[in-house]
Amino acid sequence: MKNIYFIFSNTKEDFDLVSEIRRDINSFDFKIINDFNAFYTDEIAVTELINQSDVIVAIIGGENLETIFFELGYALAKSRQIILVAKKEVKMPLELRSVQFIEYSAFSSNVLANLLGFLNKINKIKVEYRKNILDSPNKIFTEYENCLPIIDDLSSVDFEILVFNLLKNSGQKIIQNNSKSDYGFDFLIDRLGKYSNVILEVKKYTNNNKISINQVQKFLGSIVSNKAGMGIFISFGDFTASAIEFVKNQKNKIALLNFQTFIDTLRSNKFDDIGL
Question: Of the candidates 37, 84, 36, 83, which has an alpha carbon nearest to the alpha carbon of residue 61?
Fold first, then answer.
């Protein structure tokens, strides 16, 4: 789900427009993150909300422009998707003249229709990006930083597909675990470097929700029960300190890889040293 942050003045006209948009936006895969019960006089609070946002919608009605343009400048610097809703007489700074623009003279349904059309277009682009990265995952090796926001937006299932395709494209004979029984792993590789019968568990966790020691202990049980020569736990984010410490003292080989380490290992093709 994409986060939307509204930038607007405190005039009744602008507030009524934003309120109307809020009612109509529920059918789209967006979440409005403004706190409409608070006024952000603190620039730090405003910039933090912009950092959390994916799309900025700025209502520019002619008042409080200095503050609005400050917030828009910060959003531009952070490469946020911006949609402007502005009156015709407002003179836009040069930096904003190439931004998507909806003109209005007074509140009308045309503004809502145009804005929702822009948001729908953004959603379609999101679907196209998803398909592109799943079908051609090797672009991650050359465009890693550009691909991260797209990967971050993938579902857990799509992230598993991405890891599967990356390993398959690297020449690994990888098999998906399609058993109805839960054997505690997602994929099996017959041989990976010097290791045979390697099982992999893949989770779409972020750094705000790290893989815990309990999950790693459960995975160890899967390694033992499946008589695996090695287990690899791949997460988009990181692992807790206790989870990392736990695997150091195990007889069974376990590698804990965040996504960056996983990509680096694929680049170097040094599977014998994986997880060391």
Answer: 84
Res 276: pLDDT = 46
Would you say 275 and 250 are in contact if contact means Cβ atoms under 8 Å apart? no
Average pLDDT of the segment spanning 246-254: 88
pTM for this model (two decimals): 0.59
Computed over every residue of the chain, the mean pLDDT equals 81
Instruction: Tell me the CB-side half-sphere exposure of residue 252, using CA atoms within 13 A.
Output: 23
pLDDT of residue 41: 54
Report the candidate in 264, 262, 215 with the shortest Cα–Cα distance to residue 234: 262
Q: Taking 60 as the threshold, does the pLDDT of residue 107 lie above it?
A: no
What is the distance between the alpha carbons of residues 60 and 57, in angstroms, rounded to a whole number? 10
pLDDT score for 46: 85
Mean pLDDT value across residues 75-82: 83
Domains in the chain: ranges and CATH: 2-131 (3.40.50.300), 139-273 (3.40.1350.10)
